## 1
Amino acid sequence: MLPPLRHPLIEHGVVYGNWLLDSGRSEEAAEFAAAILATGPSGLGGETIAFIARCHVAGGHMDEARALIAPLAAGRVRRTAGLHDALARVLDALGDREGASIQRQLKSEAVAFTASVVARQAGEHERLRQEVEERRARSEPVRLHFGCGHTLIDGFINLDHAEGPGISTIPGIFQRHDFFVVALGPLPINANAVDYIFHEDFIEHVSQATQVSFLAECLRILKPGAVHRISTPDLRGDVGRYSQFEQGWAGVWNYEWDTWGHVSLFSPSSLADMAMMVGYAQVLLTEKNQSTSPFRCLEQRPLGDREASANIFADLIK
């Protein structure tokens, strides 16, 4: 039996639990659902409720699933970005009139939600552009921290694709003026404008195609000679160390993918190859907290989940 999950672990539990359901491992997914419910049902987001309802459907408990999603029709479920897709799978499984009615409501909401996301992203882009230009006008270093989550670094412009527990761009008690909700893509920043880019345990969560585009965009906005600092799990030192490849498929150590949802891992050589292909002048492999940039910060990762020797610490220099 898993202990109760607390924020921010609930989000990870939902992601992993849905993966278990997709893999046909419904009993293990039900354990995560129980651990989430042990925290108390109040304040759960729509994606979390949809995951728990999926568990009920997988177990044949259709009435329980309907009871969970019923508040949606009354507008009592707190909306989250992935709510519509998450609930669609539950409603398809239920396949009844109630489900069809909610599906129609969701489609209508999705149109309005998409419009609001586009409008907000435009606002965040403009706010980010102004922040960069103001720092440059004050002759302050422009330092970007991608994939910040709830770890905000003072003196940096902290960016992530969504708000996390305890931080927000919306005025209020958790508002941080150095935090920006910005999706990966072209940035509203002029070329040769940024002094330092940093991220840890971030780049392995996106596809190889996105990695190439992201490195290219970072290269564009960096000043000549500036550093793009990367901290990421080492495919060779992590998967390579613990796998027993002679056993074939069954011997591969899938911890990094299965536990943390990593998508595309680097080895030191593959990171260097990609960076040089994109156009970086030099790639320096260092130790933790040993960046060559004068604008570096204290690095937190990795923690207890892996050894520092199973991690890549690299300066990509423009």
Note: The CA atoms of residues 66 and 98 lie 8 Å apart.
## 2
Amino acid sequence: MKTRIRFAFSVILTVGIGLLLCYSAFGSTSISKQALSLTYTDEADGYTMPYRLFLPEDYGGDRSFPVLLFLHGAGERGQDNVSQLTVGIQRMFKAREDLLKETIVICPQCPEGEQWVDRDWSLGNYSTDSVGESRALRTALSILSLVESDYSCDENRVYAVGLSMGGFGVWDLLARHGERFAAGVPICGGGDPGKAEVLSEIPIWCFHGANDPIVPCKGTRDMVESISQYRKEHIIFTLVEDGEHDIWNRVLSNPELIEWLYDQSLALRAVPAETENGGGEWFLPAGIAALSLLAVTGAVLLAIRARKRSRN
């Protein structure tokens, strides 16, 4: 009898710990359980790509929702339609569940042996003139287009976030299709400095570990430097000084990053920002900027009234 009780207790304890770990990883909303499991098929040649689609709990056709396209790293490739949810995206849900729960989230899964950008990561940056758009990335964009046609999406608020291999993918999407995205967050990736003028018009917050042994940090530095030659106010670079390659959990757990991202809109293009300053950037979200302006205006009006009263 005692043995059974102990066994039952150990099972309950194990399940409890498992649930606690799941909660700590995903927050109260588990995207792995709530996201639809779907597969995109190219009718022309039968090429397929699995993807997960998270819809807001209060989704309704009479309201449009922001869209987040999340590109995973190399380790999550495959066909199980699960692995791409295990790294990164759940951190965003935990950091600002209130915003993510009101978002249409798309998580495509790149097939094994393919890449979002057909580039040797150890070489860093590249030219989009010599490296064509990959089949995988074209398919991810097709999935985005399908979701936009089938669901009530706010086309002014479409965001791209990617890590490692997905960081390359975000830079590539913004360079080739920047008009479709309100903002992007490439993490420890590389892009095309030759597209700096186009990229300078897009709000981008990029991240890289200073000690990255896999993707050279110099690539992101060069991207920021090239973009800054055209415009500095749209680009933010955070150098994680003690970071190596896997900095994404820290990065995507930052609620300020998510708040900044959701402040961006094609209809209202920019939140001004400083570029690199030793691993932390100053920025002023649009909502706070508006409140600050109102506060200053109010203070001026009060000063004028006080001056009039003193004269009387």
Note: Residues 1-29, 270-304, 306-312 have pLDDT under 50 and may be disordered.
## 3
Amino acid sequence: MMNTRELFIFLPCENKKRMRKCLVLIFFLFNCMIVSAQDPAFSQFYACPLYLNPALAGNVECGRASCNYRRQWPQFGAFDTYSVTYDQSLPQIKSGFGVQMLAFLPGEVIRNYYVNVFYAYQLRLAEDIYLRAGVSGGMKIDDVAVENILLPDGTTGTSEGMVDSIAISPDFSGGLYLSFFDKFYGGLSVAHFSNTVDDLAIKYTVHGGAEFPLDNNGYYAISPNFLYQHQGNFNQVNVGVYALLRWITLGVWYKGNLRGGGADTHVICPLVGLEWRNFSLGYSYDVNISGVGLQSQGAHEISLAWNFCIYVEKQKRVLKAIKSPRF
């Protein structure tokens, strides 16, 4: 993430004739940086588990590959988020690892990329009580594509002598996740706690829930959940419930973005998930019911995951995957 001083390195403001254009560019880039100073967010929180909490890395019986796509506010040019993740259980050492690549594209000028590796360790505290602790490390890449800046007179940032700027900063996060009686679960995570380079604030997440079976076979269940996130002046309170109907998951979340000063927004997010053999597919849609969201056309989100195993059956050892929603 660039700071204001770095902006002037490539802004051509050496004379009064160009000063007006420079002011327009500075105002435009400043607003873009405000957007990129906050992490992108998914509505299917648990469908992107490592991004939610590093402690969930490898919380599968074997291996998992997943991808996520979110398109937000298409009426205003769209904010796109892409994620590709692979994580693996390591039962011999009661651990799991993973790697994730995530791209956040809030328009065509500012582009944010995150590349991280994850490690988590699982500890059995007592009968049916498990604790996972995880960390992640990597880098955040901020890219400014000035050729996509279009000024009021029809010129672009490139024609005004600006050059692309790329800033790379280290990124570290950590988290804990607890499950007990194979019914209740919860966790907390702290993201970007090492960040001293750019304007991206530390993000705190607290999440939890329970799963109450409705039959003896575990095919049907009700699962209430909550999630709270705080980052800078951004506070989001989420409460929701899943209905597990064998291979179908139906859910609905309320998402309240509490900014104060009349800028609060409220979202209702219905979702549906399908599970078939080792695959799971989810779709959700954010219905904005207040603020700018009424004209934004909400947000579409799709997730796809594949659970697989790389071990030979005779050599296979299993580390218990503790309770966690899929979407």
Note: The two ends are 30 Å apart (CA to CA).
## 4
Amino acid sequence: MSNKKFILPYGDALKDFLTLSILSQADLKNLLRKRGVFFAEADKINTIPLCIKTGIAPSELDELKEKVKTKEDNPKQQTQSIEWSGDETTLLSAIQDDLDIHDITNEPFKNYNIIGTPSFKPIANNPNNIELEFTIERHDLTKSWDKNTTQHTGKVSFKKSSGNKSVNMSFTHTSKETKIVASKIIKAVVKGMKSDGLVQPETQIVKIRFNDFDNASRIKFLKKLSQNQKSNSLYFLDTKDIGFKPDNSMQLPDEISWMEDKINNLIIQGQDLHSTFFVKDQQYHPFLQVYRLDTDFSFEFDGVVGECRLSLEFSGFIVQRKNNAEFQINVTKLRITENESGVSHNKIKERLLSSLESDKLLLHQKYKLP
């Protein structure tokens, strides 16, 4: 039993593991429910002390570690844009020759390293549609009970919009560290473009944030983004989950006044939820802060056929109480019925995420506050 991987964490080591942000309140709540333990308020501040006092079984540890791995391996995508002043200059030529990903991400006490020397490459030989894929090696050290080295991937993409008016930027990340790396790369590339006069110095990166909308327009944004997908490559089927809370800054109508001072977060699960009165009856929209839709789609492209569930979410609005939470999409379920070319699941997920990229920006522009 000298191998630390066979030692169950306890005390501070267990506390460090359970407080990982990627383990949600629901994860711990469900674990305790299996023990027959129920909480009126299942916040981590209540569930973690109990887990530390009672300890954790090997099967429970395996279950939580698998949740961490699954959530991190699942690609998530965020999309941004910036005004372009470089006319016909290609994006590939706009990348500065001295751009060094290792220098960009160099910082003291980081727990990861970038593997190799990644660089931007054109997609389909188009110098105005470029991407950089990277892999990091992360070193996890949680006190004395475990030590792991894991690899995680990420991708940064730049694409000119039609008319050369703006550049769409997206990054796909898995772990928290790949998100950090992707954000640093975008920031460095934009800084270089500004110094070369391709982007005006005062121009800001446009992000899709929760507080870009009022309550009613945010619902329109989420509804249109999901239900307007009617092509074979991505076809809307059903709304399965809706996450929302009442806007506590407003006086609620009598019909939904039961929520007042009682509901901090409500998730409705079921079928055909886009037809429920919460979504269909627009008189309630100004009073509801909808932050997440989980929606089912069918898809067919390049010999790949199947169904998926996409989570459209302003991540961080509920857990971190961030009114400026940035919008992101991730694939929570994937079922493949045909895959003639043997495309990997992660590549299929990336293709599904990118299929919503242009619509995200157009609908953001349409429904955001002036």
Note: The chain has a mean pLDDT of 88.
